[in-house]
Amino acid sequence: MSETVTLTDARTRLGNLVAKSHHGGEIITITQHGTPVAAIVPYEVLEYFRRREDEADVALAERILAQDDDLVPHDQVRKLLGMDEDS
After folding, report:
1. Number of domains composing the chain
2. What is the pLDDT of residue 65?
3. How far apart are CA 4 and CA 54, in angstroms?
4. Residue 84: pLDDT over 80
5. Is the model more confident about 76 or about 18?
6. β-strands 35-40, 27-32: how paired?
7. Which of 28, 31, 65, 78 minimizes the number of CB atoms within 10 Å of its CB?
8. What residues contact 32, with CB distance under 8 A and at least 6 apart?
9. Record's SUPFAM superfamilies (predicted)?
């Protein structure tokens, strides 16, 4: 179940909307001038998407590291850029 509210309405009903999301699992879409601009989602939904994003980042890093391209170590990059080791 989901609900759409204006930003003005969300300001006055925030506590109720958060409770609906938290306890009822609802996704609340907030609009401004008729355009969706934000959402209130159950925290578990946010955590799910954060985990997926982290998994995608790790997979990308693993693919990059598995390539045969010549990688430049961090300390060598710092040296090439004239960055002091202690800064």
Report:
1. 1
2. 82
3. 29
4. no
5. 18
6. antiparallel
7. 65
8. 6, 7
9. YefM-like
Residue 63 placed within a domain: yes
Structural domain of 7: 2-67
- Greatest alpha-carbon pair distance for the chain in Å reads 57
42 Cβ neighbours under 8 A, 6+ residues apart: 21, 22, 25, 26, 27
Averaged pLDDT for residues 62-71: 81
Residue at 28 is within a domain? yes
pLDDT tens per residue across span 17-66: 999 999 999 999 999 999 999 999 999 999 999 999 999 999 998 988 88
- Among the listed residues 56, 62, 14, 4, the one whose alpha carbon sits nearest the alpha carbon of residue 35: 4
Tell me if 79 is assigned to some domain.
no
In angstroms, what is the C-alpha Rg of the chain?
22
Q: How far lies 65's CA from each of 52, 59, 62, 68, in Å?
A: 20, 10, 5, 8
